[in-house]
Design goal:
The complex is a heterodimer of chains A (about 400) and B (about 280).
Chain A: E1 4-13, E2 16-17, H1 19-27, E3 34-35, E4 46-48, H2 68-77, H3 82-93, E5 98-103, H4 109-117, H5 139-148, E6 154-157, H6 163-176, E7 182-189, H7 193-201, E8 222-223, E9 225-232, E10 240-248, H8 261-274, E11 283-285, H9 292-305, E12 311-313, H10 316-319, H11 326-340, E13 342-343, E14 365-366, E15 371-378, E16 382-389
Parallel strand pairs in A: 4-8, 5-6, 5-7, 11-12, 11-15
Antiparallel strand pairs in A: 1-2, 1-9, 1-10, 3-4, 7-9, 10-16, 13-14, 15-16
Helix pairs in contact in A: 2-5, 6-11
Chain B: E1 9-20, E2 23-24, H1 26-33, H2 54-59, H3 62-78, E3 86-90, H4 96-108, H5 115-120, H6 125-134, E4 140-144, H7 149-164, E5 168-174, E6 191-198, E7 207-215, H8 224-227, H9 239-247, E8 251-258, E9 261-268
Parallel strand pairs in B: 3-4, 3-5
Antiparallel strand pairs in B: 1-2, 1-6, 1-7, 5-6, 7-9, 8-9
Classes of the chains: A alpha/beta (about 400), B alpha+beta (about 280).
Chain lengths: ~400, ~280
């Protein structure tokens, strides 16, 4: 594929609202995780909760989409000057020529959960929650469309934890074929009962802050985030999307392929689309959820495919697992690594699983990151790997 | 604002499948949509896809059952190997019954959430079961776009076929709403629809289509007698495409992609035995 430039990006996650805050948290090894204080009877776990979501007030014309996910989306949109750049791109290219591809796993389901908690005696939703667009999977995509006044392709990707990584791939295809001249890619997932109690039912939730790739890791810490990127064919500044690869595990709904076959296929496809080989990768942001199976399988795949000098880490110790937003959150972290001349380590991990090769790093290190890979793997065996570069070529 | 420069592409439809309660399967649906026979009076029971093991067949969520039914149907219709197909799964509301269950359980006994229902609650559950059941390792995606879900799903299938040079399966489905959620996300009955689109003509290609995006709010309405067969279902907007495939007359179908953008599809059918494109 022809590289696309990420001319603007933004983030709101537990480790920082805005790029400067996230960059500082990464450098200072300051985790955004906290003991679970979400909901009325919180499970004993740690979460990556974004402070201040409850206090967000949406503009009046966007109130029909009001819910935690839309507020988190708004925090992401209004961070880092993204909203202004997105609006300028819309005006430059035309509102129908800018595509919006948004990844989310649970979208606005927190609003539906709240409605069921507060049902009226006759079984109706409470009046303040009777907004159909806040109770549908496309809720957040439609909210961002309305917020930016877009008139082009608008679609929500829901492939669980690979959603917003796959949004980059879909946006690139739309631009390659000329269906759009620019694209806004987003990932937004917010804390809700479904994911906290759902992952708990699968015994995947850690009672302590997650420790990706640690030999005695105990599961994931669920997080939330809203993050956006503007893709253009060219521009004055920003990292480049060099390639993307997708695959299916064809193995199990909630457990990865034991040999990581799907993950390998996605990574290989990303290199093929970029016309690059693994030896050019300076940094890999791993999926690294801190679940037993994911980390074991992913560590083996990386040990097999990459040279020892490639640095790799999971940054979920900072952000928690932001599920459908993880793909873009971790893309943004690779951008910070490229700009800042450092790679983040694997926060909270102390002793690495023996499955890890020399690539997986515990501590932050200074490094010149020219090419970075970001892995995202989701339930249902959906895999996506993204390759980014500081320049258009390795 | 600059003038839109939407390019036009050509693709081929190689396989079709359709299921709604009174027209359960493409053979009967085609005949009814053509006006050659009446829809059955009694709704058919939910399909039980053979792709799943017998125990899973009964327990599978409605979304999985209907999606697999039409995905298998389209592959059989096209004579295509499912393992060779990338796929796009499009569903407006996800599994409404599971969302109702999850929300209800979370309101009262959150720690008793069923792990199986939780992993079946993801928007890509049907796609996951499809790739597991067929052993397909090619990519799938799972999309929603509210009332524009079918149009966006078909666009992505066409974009993938064109950009990857491969046949791509579109599977679109929505099920019946349950519980209080039905007041916000109404959907009646079960509807499943699938097509396989390819960038180049094959021996079994059924139609040639020229497609492009276009500004405008004009959308193709189905014939009233057909519209009632899917009325109230969240995937009802898929019908004009399948009407076109059934009636086999050259025509243009406009499907919504967003409030002011459409997918324009011009259908071109072979005439007689010499009309094939390969």
């Amino acid at each position: 594929m022809k590289p696309l430039r990420v001319t603007s990006h933004s983030i709101a996650c537990a480790a920082g609202i805005g790029l400067p805050a996230l960059s500082a948290a990464l450098r200072n090894a300051a985790s955004g995780l906290r003991p679970n204080d979400f909901g009325e009877s919180p499970l004993a776990t740690w979460i990556g909760r974004v402070s201040g979501v409850e206090d967000v007030r949406l503009p009046g014309h966007l109130l029909e989409w009001d819910c935690r996910n839309s507020r988190l989306a708004w925090m992401g949109l209004t961070s880092d000057g993204f909203l202004e750049r997105a609006v300028a791109a819309r005006d430059r290219y035309g509102a129908d020529r800018v595509a919006l591809v948004l990844g989310t796993s649970t979208s606005s389901i927190g609003a539906t959960e709240e409605a069921y908690r507060r049902l009226l005696p006759d079984g109706q939703y409470p009046e303040d929650l009777r907004h159909p667009m806040a109770h549908t999977p496309h809720s957040t995509g439609d909210f961002v469309r309305a917020a930016l006044d877009l008139e082009g392709v608008v679609v929500t990707v829901g492939t669980a934890c690979s959603s917003s990584a796959k949004a980059f791939a879909q946006a690139e295809r739309l631009m390659r074929l000329g269906i759009a001249d620019a694209a806004i890619v987003g990932g937004v997932d917010s804390l809700c009962g479904s994911v906290l109690f759902g992952f708990n039912s699968l015994e995947l939730v850690s009672p302590e802050p997650c420790r990706p790739f640690d030999v005695s890791r105990r599961g994931i810490s669920i997080g939330e985030a809203g993050s956006f990127a503007l893709l253009e064919r060219d521009g004055e500044q920003g990292p480049w999307l060099l390639g993307h690869g997708e695959s299916s595990d064809a193995h199990h709904m909630s457990s990865p392929h034991p040999q990581g076959l799907g993950a390998r296929l996605a990574i290989e496809a990303a290199f093929e689309s970029a016309g690059l080989t693994p030896d050019v990768v300076d940094y890999i942001n791993l999926h690294g959820t801190a679940s037993q199976r994911n980390d074991e399988v992913e560590a083996r795949v990386v040990a097999d495919l990459f040279p020892a000098a490639t640095r790799a880490s999971s940054t979920k110790g900072w952000t928690g697992h932001t599920l459908g937003a993880a793909g873009i959150v971790e893309a943004v972290i690779t951008f910070l690594a490229m700009e800042g001349g450092f790679v983040p380590g694997t926060l909270n991990a102390q002793e690495l699983d023996p499955a890890c090769g020399p690539q997986v790093r515990l501590s932050n290190e200074p490094a010149d990151v020219r090419v970075a890979l970001s892995n995202s793997f989701g339930f249902g065996g959906s895999n996506c790997a993204l390759l980014f570069g500081r320049d258009t070529h390795a | 604002m600059p003038e839109s420069m939407a390019p036009r592409y050509t693709a081929f439809v190689d396989g079709v499948a359709f299921w709604a309660p009174r027209i359960p399967g493409w053979t009967v649906a085609r005949s009814v949509l053509r006006g050659e026979s009446e829809a059955q009076a009694q709704p058919a029971p939910r399909p039980a896809p053979g792709l799943l093991a017998p125990t899973e067949r009964r327990r599978a969520p409605d979304t999985v059952a209907i999606a697999l039914e039409v995905a298998v149907g389209a592959c059989e219709n096209a004579g295509a190997d499912p393992r060779e197909l990338a796929s796009v799964f499009a569903c407006t509301e996800g599994d409404l019954a599971i969302t109702d269950y999850m929300s209800e359980t979370l309101a009262h006994t959150p720690t008793l959430i069923s792990p199986t229902r939780f992993h079946n609650s993801v928007h890509n559950a049907a796609a996951g079961y499809w790739t597991i059941g067929t052993g397909c390792m090619r990519p799938y995606t799972a999309l929603s776009a509210h009332r524009y879900t079918f149009g966006e799903g078909l666009l992505e299938a066409l974009v993938q076929a064109e950009s990857n040079g491969r046949a791509t399966l579109l599977v679109a489905y929505d099920i019946e709403s349950r519980g209080p959620l039905a007041t916000m996300a109404p959907s009646r009955g079960i509807v499943g629809a699938a097509v396989i689109v390819t960038p180049t003509a094959g021996a079994r290609s059924l139609a040639r289509i020229g497609w492009s995006t276009a500004r405008g709010t004009e959308r193709t309405a189905p014939l009233p007698r057909n519209a009632e067969l899917v009325a109230g279902n969240a995937m009802a907007a898929c019908l004009p495409l399948f009407e076109a495939m059934a009636i086999e007359e050259d025509r243009t179908v406009r499907l919504g992609l967003s409030p002011s953008l459409s997918l324009e599809i011009h259908f071109d059918f072979p005439t007689g035995n010499e009309g094939r494109w390969s």
